[in-house]
Amino acid sequence: MNMKHLLSYAVGLMIFFLGCQKIGVEPQDAKSSKPPFLIDMERTDLEIVKQQYDEAERYALLSLIEIRNEKQDEIRKKNNCDSISIALSKIYYAQGKYDRAAELSMTFMKGDIFLSQGKYDDALKVYEQAAMAADKRGQDLPLKYRNHKVIGAYPLLGNYYLHIGNYERAREYYKDNYDALVKEGLNRSDHVGAASYRMALTYLYTGDDKTAEKYLIDAKNIDERTMVTSPQDYLDVLFMLGRIEEHRKNTTKAMEYYETALEYVKGIGQMTAQADRLTEIRFRVEQSNVWNQMGRLKLLSHVPDEAIAAYAKSMALRNATTTQTHPDYADALRGMAGAALLNGDTASATLQAEESLKILDAAVVPTHPRIAPTLIALSSIYELTGKSDQAAPLKTRIETILQKPLGPWKEDFMETAAFYTEQLKKANKPATSQYLEQLQARQKDKR
Questions:
Q1: Cβ contact 58:27 at 8 Å
Q2: What angle do CA 203, 207, 210 make, to 5 degrees?
C-alpha cells in the first residue's frame, strides 16, 4: 500500500469508525515542541503496550491524518507513514483482523498473518523472500554474523511446514536454527529457549511426548534464567507441558502448570505496569490465553460451572482489550457452549457455538483447520436439538477441511469430537455419534 492510498485509508476508517465531529482527542499541549503527529504516534505505541487496541487504532489513524497536513519532505513523510502502517498492522493482527493487518504489513510479519489466516502458500512466499533477503544481506556481513542472519529465516520456514503437518521438514529447519544459535554462543539466551520450544512441537505433534518434554524442560529452564522477549513464549512452554500431563491423565499436574502460568503472567503484568506507570495491568491478552487453557481442562473434566467461570474471565479480558474478534475468543465461546450443554442449557450452547463460528469465518479462510472443532460442536448441538437440516452443511465443511492435514489443531479437533460423541451417545443419537467416531478413527494416524 503506497503512502497516498494509506492516507486515504486512514481518513476513510476514521470517518467510518469515529465520525469527524466525535473524535474527542485531548487538545495538544501548546508548549510542546513535538508536532501533533509525533505525539499521537507515541500515544499509539503506549496504547499498544497497554493492549488497549481500540485507542491505539484511534491515535494511529489520527497521526496519519496529521502527517498529511504536516510540512515534511516526501521521504520523511513516507517513513513516518510506514511506521504507523506497521503499528496498525500489529493492532489488527492482535484483534484477529487479519485482512486489514496483511494489507498494511510491510515485513515478514505478513507471512505470520497469512499463516494465521490459513493462507499457507502466501505465507511460504513471504518466508522464502525473507530467507533470500537475509542471504543477500549476509554476504555483506562479517563471517561471524553471516550464518546467524541466514539461519534467522529458518524458524519462519519451519513454522510453515509445522502448520501443514510436515513435522519432519519443520524439524530440519528448527534444528538448523537451534544449532546455529548454539554455535554463536547463544545457548543460554531466550532465542535458544524459543528454538527448544519449536523443536518440542515437532515431537509432540507426532506423539513422542518423552522427547517433546525434554525440549520443553530445556526451554522452561532457559526462560526462567533469562528475561524472555515475550511472556507468551514462556506461557506456551507451560501450556505444552500441561498438555503432556493431560495425555498421561494427570489433570492435577496439568492444572498446576496452568496455575503457574497464570501466577507468572499476573506477576509480570503488575510489575511492568508499575514500571511503565500504567494504571492497566499489562499482558491481559496473555492472561486470557491462560484462562482458556484452564477452562478447556475443566470442560474436559466435566466441571461445567468452573469451566464457565474460567472462560468468562478469558472473554472479559478480551473484551477489555477489544480483541473479541480474535479466533482465541471464538475458542472460548466454543468452550462456553460445551459447558452450557453439560448444564442442559441448549439455547445458550447454540448461540455461543454460532457466534464462535461467525468470528472464525470473519478471521480465517473457510477451510482453516482451526474451524473444524467449532463445526463439530455446532453441528452436534444442532443434532441434539433436532436441527439436523442445519447440521448437514456444517458436516460438508468438516469433510472439506479434513481433506488436508489438521496440523497443530488436530488435538483440539480430537478432543472436541470425543466430547460431543459422548454427549450424543447420552442423548441416544447413535447415527451422529458413530459418524464422529468414524471421523476420529480416520484422523488418528493422520497429521
A1: no
A2: 65
* C-alpha span between 258 and 238 (Å, rounded): 7
Between the CA atoms of 43, 286, 349 and 378, what dihedral angle is there, to the nearest 10 degrees?
100
Higher pLDDT, 31 or 127: 127
Q: Which of 329, 337, 320, 321 is nearest to 289 (CA)?
A: 329
Task: Say how many C-beta atoms besides its own lie within 10 A of residue 290's C-beta.
Answer: 26
pLDDT value of position 376? 98
Amino acid, res. 304: P
430 in Cβ contact with 414 (< 8 Å): no
pLDDT digits (tens, 9 = 90+) for 392-413: 999 999 999 999 999 999 999 9
Q: If you search the block for the grid coordinates 455461543, which residue do you land on? A: 352
* Count of Cβ atoms closer than 10 Å to residue 256 Cβ: 15
DSSP string, 94-110: HTT-HHHHHHH--STHH
Reported as a single tens digit per residue, the pLDDT across 64-101 is 888 877 777 788 888 888 999 999 999 999 999 999 99
Residue 246: how many CB atoms within 10 A of its CB? 20
Given a contact cutoff of 8 angstroms between Cβ atoms, the answer to whether 391 and 382 are in contact is yes
Q: In this model, does residue 14 exceed pLDDT 80?
A: no
Does position 148 have pLDDT exceeding 60, yes or no?
no
